[in-house]
Design brief:
The structure is a homodimer.
Chain A (H helix, E strand, L loop, with lengths): L6 E5 L3 H12 L3 E5 L17 E3 L1 H9 L3 H5 L3 E3 L1 E4 L7 E4 L7 E4 L1 H14 L3 E3 L4 E5 L4 E5 L6 E5 L2 E4 L6 H7 L5 E16 L13 E6 L4 E6 L5 E8 L12 H11 L1 H4 L5 H7 L3 E9 L2 E2 L3 E3 L2 H4 L8 H18 L4 H33 L3 H16 L7 H7 L4 H19 L4 H4 L3 H10 L1
Parallel strand pairs in A: 1-2, 1-12, 2-8, 5-14, 12-19
Antiparallel strand pairs in A: 3-7, 4-7, 5-6, 9-10, 10-11, 13-16, 13-17, 14-15, 15-16, 18-19
Helix pairs in contact in A: 1-4, 1-10, 2-10, 6-8, 10-11, 11-14
Family (chains A, B): Belongs to the aromatic-ring hydroxylase family. KMO subfamily.
Catalytic activity (chains A, B): L-kynurenine + NADPH + O2 + H(+) = 3-hydroxy-L-kynurenine + NADP(+) + H2O
Pathway (chains A, B): Cofactor biosynthesis; NAD(+) biosynthesis; quinolinate from L-kynurenine: step 1/3
């Protein structure tokens, strides 16, 4: 880590902001975290959150700063998907090999714990202080009650923008020439709902599963919380025949759930009330470059690369940013400029790769899950991978349970897809999908 | 045109803003144009401008509002490219059929004339009044000396954002959810230089040609002005071995021109002085959607779709926006909402198409012009198109000299490219490129 202690501001006290604060504080720097919102430890959760799925990259980043065990206490391991498919009994799909799991954590619960841990380590938090402007070359921050009102000016050595998809820090960088930027929304929104615990505090559904009710263009998911409840998410197009737009009344909402999710409907708490009191949120992919400004300012996490949530990697990618960045700072002594340069060069291709993988998962979910050819292909892959675990690691496992870079996961995934395309063109593949011949052909193509 | 006169604000007094003002004023509306810059009629030109190439779409839009003849007085027709290639004598490439030409106009001269014409028609211009914020649902504009200072508030019925690639109006729309936005810079910059007139006021180079000095990764162009001078543009990578970055001193600039443009060098006015006093400008492709907000706000021209200048269609595309929009308003009576909806739906695919075509021309220029295969392909296409002008309209002609939509031009261009790919794979194509066999094969593939 850099030798000379710096005076550092972090904008944003979310998961990435508080973890980065902890890393840098433990490396001996002075850290102040600004957030425009109130302290999340003192407020009710927003009702707009999807539960998190912590996987290998996330844990590795927490381990390196010594808080893995602490966080595992508030997480529940999920070793499989529970598929609630229309017209079929409930069935399970294991995520990986034995012992491999993703971990369900409530965003709010995790964020509160991380702020506690950062504060204990000596990080200063300034909540309800709104950053309106940043002077990039001089690492100054301007805060105030309103954008037009009187501003307070702060001088720092380094500023980190961990202020999420709609980052104010990035916003300032974006007005510079030669700053590439993309924000692309998908036409599907989401809404948080809740399945409460049983009266005795136990879970109403299997607590070690990620529950999915796929319905083609839309789906419902549920992830367990420690208190016996499930945080659920309804993904649904904004417009169209079956859409958020078409559900206008409590009656509409009831009819929608009765038609498509009858089995889960009676378990959802205050269904029709929450449906209208919880917001409908949009999902966006954000890409930009560069991520840094000299040795003064750097973007980390969603501010640099927001992705759609369908691979469960948003937080994991942000935590991996921090791991890589702090490792680079560690090596480069006081040369923050080189560390920042290397950080963005290393992370940008990986951020683009996980954005692509996440978007593809969305497309797969919304257009392919009903395609028998696609399902057959997945079945062949699964069979082969189980038989030859060293020769064929499925993309999902490489992303979720390995250290391999996202860019590598994308590239190998594409190569595997190329092989499967050829396999699917074999005559009578529907009949002989589990034959020796198919297996042999894959081995040849590898 | 809409029946009830509206009180309309246009942000931006550039080419698109002043033409739209003229159209709407002539349709009976009250028009105020705001611009943060001083009146261009009272200031020196910026030294950062590329001359304009008015082609069919531009003229059509001017004709419909009755100012085509007026503007032709300040334009010079160019019916050919003049190619200044290293190691070859100067040669010419006709743009199209006889009578087809693009017209060179100085951006500053045109802008001054258009503001005059709009003012004569009764448009009010408010120069040096900076728009900082827009209230979209209420069509309010906020102006003031500084962003943080006291603001003036104006109420309008409709607001148009014609404020260019870095539009403040779009900037406000962009902060809304589900607004898609992309800005992507290319790694090549440009700089304006001048070749002055001869002492007797005549042009130093052929005045009816678009002069090009292609040099692979970079190029120099010159377009004539009425006063005998040429406005020239040097396109050059920002970084790299031969780049703006590598030209640091007057000596460097002289060496660069001596090495690559010896023939034109002595004609450039104040070469080494202008090189450092004129800015180096960046080029960006901007895409966004939606372009309108209810019946209150619409983006027109670069604010909705900035493109790189390598097809000479930026202004033409903006003028065509106005033509289409005003035709729609004409048909839809007082229903501005429907007209705006139809406008963005019709123009967005065309804006995307001309962005793509312009970017491809940039790629072609920087990587393909030295490729003998590419040059041969162009030669075969030219030969065929001359012989069968009804069967093969080159993309350039369809974009530049026709009414066909940009989207159609892109699609047909792609189909033609597909055919040429097959032709180029014919054995010994290098020898028999002008044979009956090749001609026959194209006819079969069409």
């Amino acid at each position: 880590m850099a030798k000379t202690p710096k005076n550092i501001a972090i904008v944003g006290s979310g998961l990435v902001g508080s973890l980065l604060a902890l890393y840098l504080r433990k490396a001996g720097h002075s850290i102040t975290v600004f957030d425009r919102r109130p302290d999340i430890r003192n407020v009710q959760f927003s009702g707009r959150s999807i539960n998190l799925a912590m996987s290998n990259r996330g844990w590795k980043s927490l381990r390196a700063v010594g808080i893995e065990d602490e966080i595992k206490k508030i997480a529940i391991p999920l070793d499989k998907r529970a598929m609630h498919v229309v017209g079929q009994p409930l069935y399970f799909q294991k995520y990986g090999k034995d012992g491999e799991a993703i971990w369900s954590i409530s965003r709010g619960v995790l964020n509160r714990r991380m702020i506690d841990l950062a504060e204990e380590a000596g990080v200063e938090f300034r909540f309800e202080e709104k950053v309106w402007d940043v002077d990039l070359p001089n690492a100054k921050i301007f805060t105030g009650e309103t954008e037009k009102g009187v501003w307070e000016e702060y001088d720092y050595d380094v500023i980190f923008g961990c202020d999420g998809a709609f980052s104010r820090v990035r916003h300032k960088m974006q007005r510079r020439s030669r700053f590439d930027y993309t924000q692309e929304f998908i036409d599907v929104g989401y809404k948080e709902l809740t399945i409460p615990a049983n009266a005795d505090g136990t879970h109403k559904l299997d607590k070690h599963s990620f529950h999915i009710w796929p319905r083609g263009k839309f789906m419902f998911i549920a992830m367990p919380n420690l208190d016996g409840s499930f945080t659920c998410t309804l993904f649904l197009p904004f417009e169209g025949e079956v859409s958020f737009e078409s559900i206008k009344t409590k009656e509409d909402a009831k009819n929608f759930f009765t038609a498509y999710f009858p089995n889960v409907m009676q378990d959802i708490e205050n269904l029709t009330q929450d449906f209208f009191s919880n917001p409908t949120s949009a999902m966006v992919t954000i890409k930009c470059y560069p991520w840094t400004y000299w040795d003064k300012v750097a973007l980390v996490g969603d501010s640099a690369h927001a992705i759609v949530p369908f691979y469960g990697q948003g937080m994991n990618a942000g935590f991996e940013d921090i791991y890589v960045l702090c490792e680079l700072l560690d090596k480069s002594g006081d040369d923050w400029s080189s560390a920042f340069e290397a950080y963005q060069e290393m992370r940008k291709p990986n951020a683009d790769a996980i954005a692509e993988l996440s978007y593809r998962n969305f497309m797969e979910m919304s257009s392919k899950t009903a395609d028998p050819k696609f399902l057959l292909q997945k079945k062949i892959e699964r069979r082969f991978s189980e038989k030859y675990p060293d020769k064929w690691i499925p993309s999902y496992s490489r992303v979720t349970f390995s250290d391999a870079s996202y860019a590598e996961a994308l590239a190998i995934g594409d190569a595997q897809e190329g092989i499967m395309k050829q396999i699917m063109q074999m005559p009578q593949i529907e009949e002989k999908w589990d034959s020796q011949e198919v297996e042999q052909r894959i081995l040849e193509l590898l």
